[in-house]
Amino acid sequence: MNTRSLGFRLVAWYAGVLTAVFVLLGVLTIFFLQRYLEANFLDTQARRARQIAGTLISSTSRAEEGALPGEVEKLYSPEASDRFIRITRADGRVVYVSGLPKDERYDPAQVPPASAGEHTRKVRLPENSLLIAAITAAGADGTPYVVEVGASGAGTDATLARVLLMLATGLPIAVCVAVAGGFVLVRRSLAPVARMAATAEAITQHNLGERLPEVDSGDELERLAVSLNLMISRLEAAIDGSKQFVADASHELRTPLTVMRGELESLAQDGQLPGEAREALGSVLEEVLRLAEIVEGLFALSRLDAGEAHAPWQRFDLGELAATTAGQMSLLAEDKHVSVACESHPGVIVEGDRARLKQVIVNLLDNAIKYTPGGGHVSLSVKREGGCAILEVADDGIGIPAEALPHVFKRFYRVDGSRTRAQGGAGLGLSIVESICTAHAARVEVSSVPGNGSTFRMLAPLAGEPLVNA
Amino acid sequence: MRMLLVEDEMKVSELVARALRAERYAVDVAADGPSGWEMADAFNYDLIILDLMLPGFSGAELLRRIRRKNQQVPILILTARDATVEKVANFEAGADDYLTKPFAFAELVMRVKVLLRRGPITRASVLRVADLEIDRLTQQVKRAGRRIELTPKEYALLEYLATNPGRVFSRTMIIEHVWDQSFEGLTNIVDVYVRHLRSKIDDPFPAKLIRTVRGVGYGLGQSADG
């Protein structure tokens, strides 16, 4: 379990507070219950003491006090009812003390003498506690006597123990139930957040039109969904704006390029021109053509980005297309003394725009040949693996440094000085490869060891089977 | 031969008109949709060249109006956007050919000639350029009576250049005819093939036939301009 999660922290706090409240409540209950029970009990004892004083003491003079024990025994029989009764003359002489109670819970001889005056006390004896009420009463001749009546506190103690047990067992159960309920509650209230996160994760640059569900609940969750949606809208507007800009810019650039190209071409074909001027013109024309190529590439990319309707898809053998393309490009490699080996398994059928996928192969091969020095090798292979059609172009050329790998599919990205304009190209070839792959629900990956070569892999769905996201 | 050019970009229209007039065509120029329609409605042109983005009303609208009136006249579309969908829509609306800016003027002239059925496709089975002889039936090539062995692609390239001796073909045109559009942007493949072709056709002989016009492209035989 994730102890840092919001759900866990909420429930932990909740359980902690709940336990504290329960414990406090229990302590207070026990405290007040004990006071109440003991006060009640002592009240009864005090009443009995007053009764003894009223019936026996008041009519007994000092000379007659010898008859008191018999009277008390006869009227109250304290041993039989487990009661403690003691009558002490004010000068400390014990006139009467009850004997060992029937249940022998305490020894009356051990109860310390009481002071004069009306009071109650709790006496703790080794095996038991006694609750005793004492009053002072005057005999018939005015001799003051202290009358003590008490009984074992075991009854109230047992009641308290039962209540304590109830609380001690009830509290953990109540906390457990509350925590379980808390988890369910937290999970339920956080479920919309999880749904929002799942939807937000599914939104990429290709389906920016989608929005998170907004529940009209008026709470923080609704606000979160609304503000996330606003953010996606701003993002969509920004991306649309930049795509539109690229489309507009490449469109606007075409007319001046047409004029430049036309004027320069007609000049360049003029045989009267001195050689130097012809050279300069040719150089300018080459740059114009390169510019036109870049504009063309940008336009193609913006069309692919916009997910524009494409040529009808057809099923074809990717291996066969690769072999044909490699054949058509072999002379280009031979010219650089680079060998191209093509190994393709038949029956790797994919579905898509054949011309565009051919462009993927052309661009990858062209790239590999470009960055492989003379004497090097380029291999092209097509196979099926794990439900995917895999096209791999590997070379043993200069390779790509690790820090450049994540950027090679970016527009106009060039690895370093050694791959600059001298190698030609617009810097859009690999971006176009990636965009075509995306349009075909395929992925393209690159791996490389600098100095040992690079490998580009395209993983495309086989015709009739969705791409397995390995 | 009289043709109408409807193009709002002054410089482009001047250039196109100049290129076509150099081929001895009579060219009328209109700069917007309404005046283009007026002229197309008033005269019987042999060919109409339309830009798609026009003030007044668009080239697509003009194309529909012309087609309603005249089913026959060949129409060539010039455009700065080459989305496939749009291309298909315009072909369906009656366009005969389509050229994306920035185009090579040599290519424009070629397309015009094809549309006027006076194209560069020579029906002759044997093409001759100076002492070079290409037999299109047997695909055999001879120079000064000596047989020269060519690979199929080298042959296709040579035959394409020989269809219009003296004209310079842009690399893009060569790629589109000899390879296919997937190779667009891969113009160095043309250079490599031309170099190989040269080593077989020209190197053993004192007179060189394959001509390079830097930045423009390649041609076979003497320049048409002189």
Summarize the structure in words.
The complex is a heterodimer of chains A (470) and B (226). Chain A has helices spanning 6-55, 68-76, 154-202, 220-268, 275-305, 318-335, 354-370, 429-439, and strands at residues 83-89, 94-97, 119-124, 129-138, 144-152, 314-317, 339-344, 349-352, 377-385, 388-395, 443-449, 453-461. Chain A has three domains: 6-160, Beta-Lactamase (2-Layer Sandwich); 220-305, Orthogonal Bundle (Helix Hairpins), CATH 1.10.287.130; 314-461, Heat Shock Protein 90 (2-Layer Sandwich). Chain A contains eight helices and twelve strands. In chain A, a hairpin with a 5-residue loop joins strand 4 and strand 5 (144-152). In chain A, helix 4 (220-268) packs antiparallel against helix 5, helix 5 packs parallel to helix 8 and helix 6 runs parallel beside helix 7 (354-370). Chain A is α+β, with helices and mostly antiparallel strands and 470 residues long. The model of chain A has no long low-confidence stretch (mean pLDDT 85). In chain A, the strands form three sheets. Chain A has a five-stranded antiparallel sheet with strand order 2-1-5-4-3. In chain B, a hairpin with a 2-residue loop joins strand 8 (140-143) and strand 9. In chain B, the strands form three sheets. A five-stranded parallel sheet of chain B has the order 2-1-3-4-5, with helices on both faces. Chain B folds into two domains: 2-115, Response regulator (Rossmann fold, 3-Layer(aba) Sandwich); 126-220, Orthogonal Bundle (Arc Repressor Mutant, subunit A), CATH 1.10.10.10. Chain B has helices at 10-22, 33-42, 59-69, 84-92, 105-115, 152-162, 171-178, 188-201; strands spanning 2-6, 26-30, 47-51, 75-79, 97-100, 126-129, 132-135, 140-143, 146-148, 168-170, 210-213, 217-220. Helix content of chain B is 38%, strand content 22%. Chain B has 226 residues and is α/β, with parallel strands linked by helices. Chain B has eight helices and twelve strands. Chains A and B meet through helix 4, helix 5, helix 6 and helix 7 of A and helix 1 and helix 8 of B.
